[in-house]
Each structure stands twice: as C-alpha cells, then as structure tokens.
Amino acid sequence: MPDKIHLTVATVVEKNNLFLMVRETRDGVQVINQPAGHVEPGEDILHAALRETLEETGWEVAITGFLGISTHRAESTGVTYYRLTFVANALHFDETAEIDSDIDEALWMSLDEIIADTERLRSPMALQSIEDYRTQRIFPLEIFRNGL
Predict the structure, then answer these.
(1) Is the alpha carbon torsion for 13, 19, 24, 27 positive or negative?
(2) Which residues contact 28 (CB under 8 A, 6 or more apart)?
(3) Predicted structure pTM score
(4) How many degrees, rounded to 5, is the angle at CA 14 between CA 90 and CA 8?
(5) What are phi and psi of 38, to 5 degrees?
(6) DSSP alpha helices (H): ranges in the chain?
(7) All domains of the chain, ordered by start, with CATH?
(8) 3-state secondary structure of 114
(9) Contact 53/103 with Cβ under 8 angstroms?
(10) Cβ contacts of 56 within 8 Å, gap of 6 or more
(11) Cβ 50 vs Cβ 98: under 8 Å
(12) Per-residue 3-state assignment (H helix, E strand, C coil) for 44-82
C-alpha cells in the first residue's frame, strides 16, 4: 500500500449550462475530469484550486463555494486520492496561458455529454461533484481557516 497522501483539489465550473472539463491521457487511456491536481507542500488549498484550474484550462476563476471532500482508490495503482472540490465562476480566458503538458484538451461539456461519456471519467468523483453542485449542496468558504 502506498504510504503517501495524495491531496487534490478540483473545481466545478458551469457557464451557459456547460461544465469546464479536461481530457487527459493516463496510462495510455484518455479520460475526462474536472480541472484538478495536487496541492503542493505549503500551498493554500484555495490557491491550489485556482492554480490548477488556470494551468489545466487557461481559465481564471473565482471560487464561490465548497462541495466537499471525497475519496477514491485507484484500482490500477492502489493510490487513495483525497479530493476537495470547489465551485467556481469563470472570469477570464487567458489565451497566453501555458497549459500543463499532460492535458490533451480543455473543453466545455453539457451534462448529457458527460453522462454519455461516464465510462471515460477519471473517477466517479467527477460526476458526483456535478450532482452535488446541481442539487446546490454547497458549503460556504468560511469553513476554511488559512494560516499560510
């Protein structure tokens, strides 16, 4: 069993009834996910969510709420991911942003398109986050205490 904690952040961003998603290739298989990534040591969690969204999509966003903490164990590696998911509003697309090399494409998808591609979701946490957002199961950001 791996002895490293994988703390990740993700954002659910909706604009015009479309969700900001990324296509990425993992172990030779193309998967779909929200903009997401690891929190770096010493990094504020909210800043990590803003950074990962920009690095993976080119979109600057404003975080407006918290959807919760979820866990997922990757069958192929045995790694357990601890994911903090946020709601964010799209503010500005930075055409000059350099997108992470492991991202194949950032795209806007309808809920129907995401559901139709469920087998390609990187983990069940992606669709669960959207369902939490759609039912307005959103917590205020005041629950975070930033000591950094």
Answers:
(1) positive
(2) none
(3) 0.92
(4) 80
(5) -80, 145
(6) 45-57, 111-116, 124-134
(7) 6-139 (3.90.79.10)
(8) helix
(9) no
(10) 22, 35, 36, 37, 99, 100, 103, 106
(11) no
(12) CHHHHHHHHHHHHHCEEEEEEEEEEEEEEECCCCCCEEE
Which residue in the block uniquely carries the two structure tokens 């800043």? 47
Confirm if 141 and 66 have CB atoms less than 8 A apart. Answer: yes
Q: Are the CB atoms for 82 and 7 separated by under 8 Å?
A: yes
- 122: left (phi > 0), else alpha (psi -120 to 50), else beta? alpha
Q: Which tens digit of pLDDT belongs to each residue from 93-148?
A: 999 999 999 999 999 999 999 999 999 998 888 999 999 999 999 999 999 887 76
The residues facing 88 across adjacent strands are: 13, 63
